[in-house]
Amino acid sequence: MTKEKILVTGGAGYIGSHTVVELVQAGYEPVIVDNFSNSEESALEGIAAILGRSVPCHRIDCTDTAALRRVFEQEQNIQGVIHFAAYKAVGESVAEPLKYYHNNVGSLVALLQVMEEVGVTNLVFSSSCTVYGIPDKLPVTEETPVQKANSPYGNTKKMCEEVLTDLANSGKSSIKATALRYFNPIGAHPSAKIGELPLGVPNNLVPFITQTAVGMREQLTVFGDDYDTSDGTCIRDYIHVVDLAKAHVVAVERLLQGKARAIEFFNVGTGTGNTVLEAIKAFEKASGQKLNYKVGPRRVGDVPKIYADVSVATEELGFKTTSTLEEAMKSAWDWQLSLQKEKNKHENTDYGRSGLYRLARGAPVRHQIPKLSNLQPRQADLRR
C-alpha cells in the first residue's frame, strides 16, 4: 500500500520537525520544504536518528512559486500540505514589518496558488492564539472575537486566516483548510534528538529557562509580578510540542477522510493556564535544578493571561493532550543537556567552533546547508 505524501513547509523547524516524526509514525510519507533561514540542518539529522532513515527535503523559499511548483512536479501524488514556514519573532516583526508580510502572507498565497494549479486540496495551516489579542473572557473559544493584532507578526497570522476564509467563501476553490490556533508549545522529543533551537538569545520562556539552568545565561527575568493572576505573573497555556505535532496529524487525517469543512479553526492547547512562576516551579521539580531568576518590570506587548477552551478540538478533531507541564519541562531539560553534551564533545573541533553548538554561546551560526538544486535529487546530504 502506497503511503500518502504530505508536504511540510518549515519542516526543519521546531514544531515542523516534531510533526514530521509523528507523520512517519502514523504511516504517512512527509516531504520537507525549508529554506533554513530560521532552522538548522541538525534537525534533519535528529529526525533521521529517531526514524532510522532520512526524510526527503527540498531547500527552497516558499514565496517562490516556480520552486514550489517544481517540488510538486518532482514529488508525485502529494495529498496534503502542512504550512509552518513563517517568521515568528514579535520584536523583529515590529522593526521589519515588510519582511514579515512578504514572507508570512506571501508564502501562503504562493502555496495556495500552486496547490490550485496542481489540484492538491488539503491544507493544515499553522495559526496562533495571538489572533485573540487580549481576550475579554477566558478561556478563549473558537468564537472569541479576533482582535487587532499587537504586532506585525500577529497581524500576519490574522491576515493569513482571512486569506483562507476569503478563498473558502469564494466558492471557486476546492481547497479545504484547517487552521490550528495553538498556544505555547514547549518541550522536546523524548529521544532528545530534536527540540527548540533558538538562534542567539531566546525569545521564548522555556529555552531561556533551560539555558539559564545549564549556565549559558546568568539569570532569567520574569517580566512583571503585578498582573491580576494568582501570583501576579502572566498566564499561558503550555502545550508539549509532541502533543501539538500529533494534533497536526489528526487534522491531516480529518481532511483526507473528507470530514473537514471548507475552512475550520481549532484551538490547540491543554485547556489549562499556568503562571510563569508555576512554569518555573514545574521546571525546578522536573529537573532538580534551582533556577536563578529575578522579577523585572512588565514587558510591552505581553498579554496578561490567555488559555484555551479545547472542547471543540476534543469533540470534532478527537484530539486531546496527554503530557503534563512537568513532563514537557523534563523533555526540554533533557534536550538542553543533550545540546550541552555535544557542545562539550566538539568544543575544540572545527565543527564545534563553527557549527550548531556555538549557539550555546549565543552566536547565531548556521551549518553550511547543502544547496539542493530544484532540478536535482531531492535528498539533503546529511554527511558532515
Short summary of the structure?
This protein has 384 residues and is of the alpha/beta class. Helices cover 39% and strands 15% of the residues. The protein has twelve helices and 13 strands.
Mean pLDDT: 90
Shape: globular
Indicate the structural class: alpha/beta
Give helix % range.
25-40%
End-to-end distance, in Å? 34 Å
Q: How many helices?
A: 12
Main sheet: strand order:
3-2-1-4-5-6-11
Beta-strand content estimate: 5-15%
Order of helices and strands: EHEHEHEHHEHEEHEEEHEEHEHHH
The number of distinct β-strands equals 13
* Biggest sheet architecture: 7 strands, parallel
Low-confidence stretches: 350-355, 357-384
Radius of gyration: 20 Å
Can you offer a commentary on this structure?
It is a single chain. This protein is an alpha/beta fold and 384 residues long. The protein contains 12 helices and 13 strands. It has helices spanning 14-25, 42-51, 65-74, 90-95, 97-118, 152-170, 205-213, 241-256, 276-287, 311-317, 325-345, 350-354; strands at residues 5-9, 29-33, 57-58, 78-83, 122-128, 176-182, 184-186, 220-223, 235-236, 238-240, 263-268, 274-275, 293-296. A 7-stranded parallel sheet has the order 3-2-1-4-5-6-11, sandwiched between helices. Strands 7-10 form a two-stranded parallel sheet. A two-stranded parallel sheet has the order 8-13.
